[in-house]
Design goal:
With about 325 residues, the protein is of the alpha/beta class. It is built from 12 helices and 9 strands. The protein has helices spanning about 5-10, 35-50, 55, 85-90, 120-125, 140-145, 155-160, 170-180, 195-210, 225-235, 245-255, 300-315; strands at about 70, 80, 100-110, 130, 150, 185, 220, 260-265, 315-320. It is globular. The relative contact order is 0.22. It binds cytidine-5'-triphosphate. Cytidine-5'-triphosphate binds next to helix 11.
Length: about 325
C-alpha cells in the first residue's frame, strides 16, 4: 500500500540522501531570546507582498459556486474536483481568521524532539495553538500540550489513520477526535493533490452527517490554490523545495495573526542537539526507524536553517530543548 505522503503526492520521487549524511546543526538551547520588533515588522511586510493571510487561509462562499471546477496545486491540470453542493455548504461565509489577532501563539510541529520535552504546559499557555496534520496528543499531553485552536488536516490522514471511515470503529474514533476539536479551526488542503479527491468526498459526507453534534461548531477552512503564494515568498529567502512543509506554511500564517510566535517540534534530524536518538514524529511507535524517505518533496533541513536564522534575528522563538 502507498504511504500517506505517496498517496497524497500521487507519484514517486527520486530518493533523498541517506539521513546519516544530513548534518545536525549546532544550536543554542539557552533561554535568552527577545523579540526584535523592527525585524518582525519587516518580516511581516515581506510576507504580505505575497500572502494575504486572512483570504488565503480559506475559500469563502462568495468566491466559489456549486459545480465550479477546481484544479490542484501540485497535480497536472487535467485533474479536477468540481465543488459539490455538500462541499459548498461546508465552505465558510467569512474567513475564519477575519479580524483575528493573538498575543502569543505556539506552532507545534510533529518532530521527535518533543518526546520527553515537558513542553506541554508552556505550549498550552499560548493564547492560540496551531498544530499540524491532526497529530495525536492524548498520550503525549505533558510534552506537546492539549490546547488546539487550529490544526491542518490533509485528507490523506483519513486513509492512513482512519481506514477511510469504513468501519463503525473508525467512524466512532474519528468523531471522538473531532469532538475534541470543537471550536477549533480545521484547515483542510483539499486542492493540493488530486490523490485526495475520494477522501475529500468521504470527509464532506461525514461532516454533514454529524454537523449537528458539534456545538460549538467546527470551523472548517478550505484553502484554494494558494500554495504558490507561500512558495513565492519563501523563494525570496532562498528556499525553493518542490513543496513547503505543512509546518512552514502554518508558521507563515501564524506570523500574520500573532504578536509572538513560538515554534516547537521543528527538528528534522535523527538525533537531538545532545545526540540522543530521535524518532521522526513524537508519536511514532517505539523502535520506528527515523526516516525522511517519503519527504522527497520537502527541504526540511533548509527550512530549519531559515527558522534558526529568524530565531537569531528575534522574529520567532524556536524551542529545541526540554522546557523547564
Ligand atoms: N517537522 C519537523 N521535524 C520533524 C517532523 C516534523 O520540523 N522531525 C515539522 C515539519 O514542518 C512538518 C510538520 O512538523 O511539516 C508536521 O509534521 P508532519 O505531520 O510529519 O508533516 P509531514 O509528514 O512532513 O507532511 P507535510 O509537511 O507534507 O504535511
Amino acid at each position: 500500500p502507498l504511504t500517506r505522503s505517496q498517496f497524497a503526492l500521487g507519484f514517486m520521487d527520486p530518493p533523498l540522501p541517506p539521513v546519516s549524511t544530513i548534518s545536525v546543526p549546532t544550536v543554542s538551547t539557552t533561554l535568552d531570546w527577545t523579540v526584535n520588533q523592527t525585524a518582525l515588522n519587516q518580516h511581516r511586510a515581506d510576507i504580505e507582498q505575497f500572502v494575504d493571510a486572512e483570504r488565503n487561509i480559506s475559500l469563502v462562499r462568495s468566491e466559489v459556486r456549486v459545480g465550479q471546477v477546481m484544479h490542484f496545486d501540485y497535480s497536472e491540470q487535467k485533474y479536477v474536483f468540481p465543488i459539490s453542493a455538500s462541499l459548498y455548504s461546508l465552505i465558510p461565509e467569512v474567513s475564519p481568521f477575519q479580524n483575528k489577532h493573538y498575543n502569543t501563539c505556539a506552532v507545534v510541529g510533529s518532530g521527535g524532539i518533543l518526546s520527553n520535552s515537558y513542553c506541554g504546559n508552556e505550549i498550552d499557555r499560548a493564547d492560540f495553538v496551531f498544530r499540524c496534520n491532526f497529530a495525536p496528543i492524548d498520550k503525549y499531553k505533558s510534552h506537546v500540550g492539549s490546547k488546539t485552536n487550529f490544526t491542518t488536516f490533509n485528507p490523506s490522514v483519513l486513509e492512513k489513520y482512519f481506514s477511510n471511515l469504513q468501519t463503525i470503529y473508525d467512524r466512532a474514533r474519528f468523531l471522538n477526535e473531532l469532538r475534541r476539536l470543537r471550536g477549533a479551526v480545521l484547515w483542510i488542503p483539499a486542492f493540493s493533490f488530486h490523490g485526495s479527491n475520494m477522501v475529500t468526498r468521504t470527509l464532506t459526507d461525514f461532516f454533514l452527517e454529524h454537523e449537528r453534534q458539534f456545538n460549538p461548531k467546527l470551523n472548517l477552512a478550505w484553502p484554494g490554490n494558494v500554495m504558490k503564494y507561500f512558495s513565492d515568498f519563501w523563494k525570496t529567502k532562498g528556499l525553493s523545495p518542490k513543496r513547503l512543509s505543512t509546518g512552514m506554511i502554518v508558521y507563515t500564517l501564524a506570523t500574520m495573526f500573532c504578536e509572538e510566535v513560538r515554534l516547537y517540534g521543528f527538528w528534522p534530524y535523527s538525533v537531538a542537539p545532545d545526540h540522543t536518538p530521535l524518532s521522526y514524529h513524537y508519536y511514532d511507535k517505539k523502535g520506528t526507524t527515523f526516516t525522511m524517505k517519503w519527504k522527497q518533496a520537502h527541504q526540511l533541513p533548509e527550512e530549519f536553517n531559515l527558522l534558526q536564522h529568524l530565531h537569531k534575528q528575534g522574529v520567532l522563538k524556536l524551542t529545541v530543548a526540554p522546557c523547564s
